[in-house]
Amino acid sequence: MKFSVISSFLGKSKDRFNGYNSTKTLAEKFEIASKIKGIEALECVYPYEVNNVKETKSLMKKYNLNISAINVNVKAEPEFLNGGLTSPDKKVRDKAVRFIKEAKDFAEGVGADKVTCCPLGDGYEFAFQTDYQEAWSRLKETFSAAADYKPGICLYIEFKPSEIRGKCFLDTASKTAILIKEIGKKGLGVTMDCGHSLYGGNNPAEDITLLHCCNIPYYVHINDNDAKWDWDYFCGSKHIVENLEFVYYLKKYGYDDYLTSDTSPTRWDMVEVFETNNRFTTKMETIVNKMEADGFEDIKNDPDFMKTWQFIEAHLINA
Fold first, then answer.
1. What CATH number did the domain enclosing 208 receive?
2. Minimal CA–CA distance to 150: which of 96, 176, 186, 190?
3. Which neighbouring-strand residues pair with 191?
4. How far apart are CA 71 and CA 104, in angstroms?
5. Mean pLDDT over each residue of the chain, to the nearest integer
6. Which of 246, 164, 244 is nearest to 197 (CA)?
7. What pLDDT was estimated at residue 112?
8. 264 and 224 Cβ atoms separated by less than 8 Å
9. Torsion angle defined by CA atoms of residues 81, 82, 88 and 90, in that order, rounded to the nearest 10 degrees
10. pLDDT grade, residue 154 (50/70/90)?
11. Is the pTM of this model over 0.85?
């Protein structure tokens, strides 16, 4: 396993009521990341956090860190207030696509192989507020155009049930998979955020399986929540067994890309939060390896699930 962290979480963050931690320069974020045990790379946000290839490559070299992905923000511009990729105004849609293309240029410049995009501004709040068919058509148009540009830099689309819109158009892994299949072009994948799956009422392990069966590439964000909201808690804080199952399927399907912490430290020590993600996930992998060595593949197919559960319990809890 190899681990990464979203660099924006290494500085100041805020919710509707409070701010957490202090503002950091890009160089300071790289320095903090270099002190987190297990971190090999950063996912950086374009264009607001990184936009200078030379500066970024210099920091990568200085702190011996890679770039796992470039996260392109297509929600913050004033024109994107009511949606960038699905805006009725083609000039606005074109600007959102341009941001993605520029993010691909930047990724190529720093040696990253992917761009990730979470279209949080594209959605709605109320019945009769939007034309769903038009919105779907525009999603296909814009992501298709983005996929055509430098297809060797894969564009991973991150789904989320809500925020900043009451309901995001791309709110589940399955809907995102349908979009990619309808577009039918190479160079598109899904950013699989565990917390987004959970609070959408879904199962991260099942979502990974769906993407695998559909031959859709995926890139993973790790975190946890209470399945009611996207709290970005540290791994295992709420869903230990589900996390174990998720790691089991990642291993089963041969996932070898970064596991990137999409976790908000808020009130807790920043370095410890991300080291917890890495440590806990590595322990889950160790347990999965032991389970497999002890014959889990046969036991999990037993129609008596209580036998399967006893096996899992024995490997998960030493008491």
1. 3.20.20.150
2. 186
3. 158, 219
4. 10
5. 97
6. 246
7. 98
8. no
9. 20
10. very high
11. yes
